[in-house]
Amino acid sequence: MILPLIKGLALTLKRFLNPNTCVTMQYPDERPKLSSRFRGLPELQIGKDGRERCIACGLCAKVCPSQCIYVEGASDEETQRRYPKIYELNASRCIFCGFCEEACPARAVMLRDTFELSSYASEDVFNKEKLLDLTRKRNIKI
Amino acid sequence: MNKDLLVYIVVASIKIFLVFSAVQIMIISMIWLERKIMAHMQVRLGPMRVGPHGLLQPIADGIKLLFKEDIIPQKANKLLFLLAPVMTLVPALITFAVIPFGDKVKILGHSVNLVITDINVGFLYIFAVSSLGIYGIVMAGWASNNKYSLLGGIRSSAQMISYELPLGLSLIGVVMLTSSLSLVDVVNAQAKLWNIIIQPIGFFVYATSAIAEVNRCPFDLPEAESELVAGYHTEYSSMKFAMFFMAEYANMITVSAIAVTFFLGGWHGPFLPPVVWFMLKLSACLFFFIWIRSTYPRLRYDQLMHFSWKFLLPLSLFNILITGLIMVLKG
Q: CB-CB: which of A8, A9, A22 is closest to B43?
């Protein structure tokens, strides 16, 4: 009965004497190491021509289990290329499942590492420009 | 004659002030140390935000508690409700009156004994006073008009009464060896050999029941958060809660000081001055308290009672028997 008690005491003392074993992360000062497959907020990607890659096919809206995406397409008058006139993502409904990314035929939606979504005003609905801005800040074109 | 009385009063007041403020400072630093040590033992960091490594955390806690609303529940017994925190804190502090924390020193031609008062029944005084602390907890539990508080109060009264017995009996061995109830005599008798070596069983019983007596983990059933929502101090807020909080730490320091006095040789030790030795031993005891708390889970209530009545009490009686037998055989 006594031996396990002493073993427990020895373990806690060992941990106490090596402060480097602490697993706590000082979050705002230390950033977490996110996995490369981390699913953050769905972001609209920008193509090599500098325009959004989205072709407003509406597959993401269709596949979305929580129905948080609303797409309304239009055609460019010169090139006849389809583009989203309205693309809205309701972030308070989004469950970060990544189905929209899987469904997208144009690789226009990608879930990257945006996870700090709190704000002082209640702006849950991300419109097209906001979603594109997230990608513009990253400076990635595909 | 009159001058002697004046000197006595001045010296006693200074000693009381010093000991009282030392205990208060220790309580404040214990709050930080406990959180920090426990965190590191459990592979966490503990408070880090307020000041460097959370050093100002006790002050932040104190300010927070001061600004909280002071709530007295409806239908609570007001008098007892207000009296309970005082009843818990005061006995814990006044036990220090008889604990010697250093050798005799000469100041301005006066020989000053480094103990507030050396009464010849110090041992009985300690137990008389420390039992009063139970009333505070029982009163808090009853006056709150809350079932959880009442259950916490009942549990703690049962627990503290059960553990007071082995606690007192474990020290009888030491008293038999010294044949004196004065704590100064007990310390003086340990100049060569500490009582922990002569009385290992007594020390074990004392350490175990002291943890139970001050309601610390793993015997912290009266305030079991998971079952009693903090027990007797559920309804207390603001400074009244702070007083319970301080009482817990003050009790811890008190029982550690008694352990140092009775078993660890008091202020005796080589090289360093006696007061430093006393503080070192006291800190070691307090560290042991924190160490135990961060290691063990809470006991079940019936296990707790069985442990006291069926194991600790017979063991302490056995210890007295053995001590008496050896004393008789040695002549």
A: A22
pLDDT digits (tens, 9 = 90+) for B209-247: 888 888 787 877 767 666 777 777 778 888 888 888 888
Report the pLDDT value the prediction gives residue B81, as an integer from 0 to 100.
87
- Counting every residue written for chain A, the total comes to 142
Following DSSP, what letter does each residue of B4-44 receive, concatenated? HHHHHHHHHHHHHHHHHHHHHHHHHHHHHHHHHHHHHHTT-
Q: Is A27 on the interface with B (CB under 8 A)?
A: no
CA distance A89 to A100: 11
Q: What is the pLDDT of residue A64?
A: 92
CB contact under 8 A, B44 and A9: no
Distance from CA of B100 to the nearest CA of A (A): 31
Q: Which contacts (CB < 8 Å, 24+ apart) does range B170-173 have? A: B170/B201, B170/B202, B170/B203, B170/B205, B170/B206, B170/B209, B170/B316, B170/B319, B171/B123, B171/B202, B171/B206, B171/B258, B171/B262, B172/B316, B172/B320, B173/B199, B173/B201, B173/B202, B173/B319, B173/B320, B173/B323
Residues B30 and B216: their CA atoms lie apart, in Å, by 14
The pair of structure tokens assigned to B26 is: 């220790």
Q: What is the pTM of this model?
A: 0.80
Average pLDDT over residues B305-320: 89
Mean pLDDT, chain B, whole residue set: 84
The residue-averaged pLDDT of A103-121 equals 86
Residue of B41, B288, B290, B299 for testing the chain A interface, max A β-carbons within 10 Å: B41
pLDDT mean over A11-33: 84
